[in-house]
């Protein structure tokens, strides 16, 4: 074990995306690592003795000694003891006890069951981690998106549905979609973190053990959990009911979905034929091993890959809602994988923030692409205006006009002006309507305004400034 | 098509669980069927003209004629038109137009894009369906669970972890877990339904078309959606952003998880060797084709099967978060499957309510099973009390006592009383502690009280009475 | 129930993709419908009595009467009986018995357990359906792909990696990928169908019942199954072991993956900016409700959607590998959904065959796109040739040359010819090498040849002609 | 990075199940670790120059120098270079080049694209790993299962369906199910490993680069791959087509399903009320932190947990079948996770082998459980025999007899003998039939024989001895 290195790892998170990334390792390791698990579990043991002492159920000096031991116990000590006795929480307890004078040892873990410690520590860990790491990283990305959306609020871009040119928007409007979606996810994430719950209710959740020493074991539970900024679950068995964690992992997974959609949009906009956005190269970076000229959207592709790797794992969460009677242990190993989802979300957020921060927007390319279909996009407003002005079958009229324009090469507006059939409607058009019908670049609805509005709203809701 | 029958269907929902079940067909068909889709989409078209008329953008008589057509248009008409033109919303529009005098036709669908109709109708349909069908069915189940939990609040049962006897609880306490979990799901479901959002923002979400006729297209959108008891999405492209529906389907899926856990618990309690609960047979019901004496938990197995069939589908929802640019259509066919999840939840709720309603609880069997391990379960309180009273290594002391009791057949309490080593602690025990240590049936913590408390809480939160 | 119509269905397969499609309904309903299930189960009952009669265990006239009843029994009769007795196979048995003279009734279902019938019928159904419907539909698609690949074997197209222009290929080569992948899937599908297994081994798989009347119950089993073109499973409990079906559904699911990749490629090639392929419009078809000029790749999008809807369901198959002891029934309802995957595969194959059959390939667009990056793609051969001729760091040399070419606008080849540093290598190039370096259109490797070779191979392996 | 330790890892595979397990680390790290990836990729580079030298395309001394460098290059060197240039294969190439005299450097990676190396190395790695580690571990488990099945071939056990007592089997027969299922998986795994494919076909799969120097680039490819015990894929683009790996991962996943079913069966047989099997405790092992007497099936629960964690990941494989055009990179990060599935399978196999090796079978408990329902299980043979002997409605007759027996407490056989209605049939029963009807312990069909037969078959097919 002594020689274990990064390169012995099997998990790409460990050898590459988290363990191999100093910044993320630094930010996440206090929460997601195995040593973080030990640390958080020890904190639960410490919280217990603090409360026991406060209630006069254990001497203050015992509590102090145990608290100190809880701070000092190392994962190595726990691992060594676990190899001996094959029980992880008992190993932690023994390792703490070994650091405590014999007369105080009996208060370590007193009345607790293993999962009082494990599940409570897990809840505390995920609550803090979500609020102290995940949300800040997502807010960084949100800030970047808001900045781009506001900066490009008026930048014309062709709107695309089915990969086909539809009607014009602005690039800022397109980005505002991601601002709104990510903003909502962040708020929900904070809610879900606030719903994390702990338990100090014993082996089957009925407070059998703690009832032996106190008349109100639920108040003891509340007090211990409050030390850890948690509330008790509405119900617990040997474990906290599964749903608060299921809900949190759902929101995290859906964050990956929002980021993957952003990534997909960006990588398609980088296609050679579209080329509306790009990424500034870093010095010394190599594009491809044999094609030095290629500029691949590999960062966006990486985000998509993470999404593909993690979205299906949500099914495991639903499977873990099922635990027989007062629990079976088939969710124990699965729970150990949960911090990986957090790493995935943070890794994607960090990467996207970095890449979006150096996103190059090629307005000329956007104009060029828009122009390609400019004439044809006027079909829609033409239809709307004709119908609004009383044409009984505007849809069919425009379809014919469009085909004619396609064949003759003349703009639909010109054909319209010349058409005897359409003249009565043309004469009743407003100036604004004529302006739009004559210039497809004006047919952007309230795209720019909406971009600014969405950004302003999320600046405020998330206190982005 | 004329001869299409139940037995031609490929979906077991259609030929069996919903279509083959008169009660569910009746309750759900106004929401989940293809004709329900048409009906809800027509309502969006009707809402539009009502608002147009109110704003003076279309004559009242046009609006009235169109509203009437929207009420009367049939799915058969739409299907026939779609076979001709291969576009489902345009087919609906044409079918409505065909029922409207020529001079009013132009106001049908005016300024809308297909997905203004489809997504708004979908949101309205799921919002109503969740509140008017799904939640009531879940509340019926919740009522049944509360009734059992309260009725059996004091019924002794062995608590089980890992399928092993742990320490005693009451059956009402065990049921209270399901009360709490289902209760929370119901509340979240109502929240998620309230988050359904619509859109009247046109082909790419920038209100390009509606801006041609109004200065504040967002207010027009709000007004149309209000007719359908909806609010606008925080952002839309051609479609409503995916997340509100993703969140709702998540909660529905997690309801299946809660119900499957209940089902799993019940079917294991029905095992021949445990036999603590059973299901009253219906007259004429046959247990198995060759073993007429068998009483299979097939209803609970069915609920588990639905969970297994539907939980993985959540992944499709995450995949549908990705839609290129202002949308691609790769979520169109997938969305058509969404009502199936609702059918699954309602079918499971209906079945469980029915079965739990005739659940037979065999208290004698519960007592017998408890007795099997009664003596041994006292190990835990013994440990707790010894540790609390100052024994330095109570865990080890109890382990030895337990082995001795296993070998000699004597109750641990008796061995304890005789033990020189333990005497100092025994002497300092409270009466309550001695009582529990002498009778494992007393070692139930606050199980009964907690069962009643949980039930009382959910009665109130959900207005169950 | 009498009034049940297509529009009451909740499953989009029933009301739209299969039930609403006369061609598919016709092809698939003998296999996937509920009535097909009844028909196949009755065939198992018939096979049993044929063998019993042959072995002298039942009178020939009894066997004949029962066989006739098995052919004539209707799903309506079975459904009605099931509503009465709540057991589906016993209902089938009763419905058959009701059509048989009283003295022969006892031989119906004799020694069988329900799942002898259900699982054997399922295996027979999936084996025949795979070979008689699924594979023929996939072969139709394969033929279409081969035709395109051969026809376009020499059609120049830019190769794309990461959505970026890489080096040239031919469109026929690109299509050959799909030919090879689909070809392999078809072969595997046939293998997997051949691995379907049945069972006539009774309630727990130990031939308890049949052993009462025969010394070699395994030979009886083999004989009955042979009537249905099946072999016995290597082991069975109450059910056939799960894996043969799990493997078959895996191959079916992976067919969706192959088709979805084809669909994705096609829809991206249809992007407005790329526009290399298109789909001929059908008469009267409407492109979009408000943009009559749009030509959406909605058929390809539909295939992608089916893939997204069905790929996650594979997880359910793995969950169904778990059945407690000699089986629990939690795979019963899930199994009823299995024919849906078949419908999905056939629907996608049929759609793709139709659309690929009218695929319009725009060679001019392919040339135009190729030309965009023509100059730059020469970087790769330049690097290869320079390295091959001894340049110590060709990668770096080409990187610099490429940047220079990007800035100056001159072709890399021209810059190379003028470079003092590169001259020694240039002088030693072969004619072939110089030709390629001077004309990126020649840099297609063996693309055309490979396309023809792949097609020839699959023509032969699958007997396509 | 220097201080990275096991306890910094986020993946439970790394800190616990693989990295924290000396035996598995030893067996798997040559294949699954990051350093194993580098090693295998370097081998591809070495294979290339060996073939180049053999064909006279590069000097033998260059090939030797490069081969040596490929053996000696360290993951640390590659990682350091990658941090500089942000491209992993180019980093490997540079690290190899740095160890080669300048004049030979140009032959390193010559004509290759990154994924010629990555995908070929991946295929070689998975082929060897499957055959050299995974299959041997599964064979160890298979041997253990065969040993138990043969040893317990005659051990009576109650057969269970739906968790209900059905008819008797033997425990060896029950185990034979797992023997057969695992045996089949092992054979399929070997087939799937044999289908792994590599590629040396360049940037888009058309051999563009290698064609510059050889007329038959496919033969060059075959020769390089043969060095690595691989064949070329039927088609490749920048990458090997996805399906061979998808198929392999499917088989691996289905192995988890088979093992999880075994684990589930064992843990239910360990339930306190059933208690038919147990696990011998290890010295010093602690059962639970507060209940020292509990003997939890946590090893079986762990296997179930791994199954739940990994089965849903198969969906990622299907998603990775989709790669746009000649590939996008969205499968790059996902592929890095693939070795984790192998770790999961091996960890489960190793654990189960260990636990099954010390499985304690409590024959007395099996007898006791059987006896519980013994009388009632005779209903089935009674029905079969009565029907076989001509009773027109044996099912109904037995149902009545069963109810009577339940109420009166008399054995069905005794009631039968006394029944006037049944007498004519009773008189015609064979001795064998009477024996079985009088002793439910005889009603085991061919369970024992089948157990031995299945074991003999798999001993032979897998060369287990």
Helix tally of chain A equals 21
CA radius of gyration of chain A is 30 Å
**Mean model confidence by pLDDT of chain A:** 93
Largest interface between protein chains, with number of residues from each side? C-D, 102 and 102 residues
The low-confidence runs of chain A, each spanning 5 or more residues with pLDDT under 50, are 287-294
General form of chain A: elongated
Largest sheet of chain A: 2 strands, antiparallel
How are strands sequenced across the largest beta sheet of chain A?
Answer: 1-2
Distance between the termini of chain A: 47 Å
CATH-defined architecture of the largest domain in chain A: Up-down Bundle
Summarize the structure.
Four copies of one chain form a homotetramer. Helices cover 62% and strands 5% of the residues of chain A.
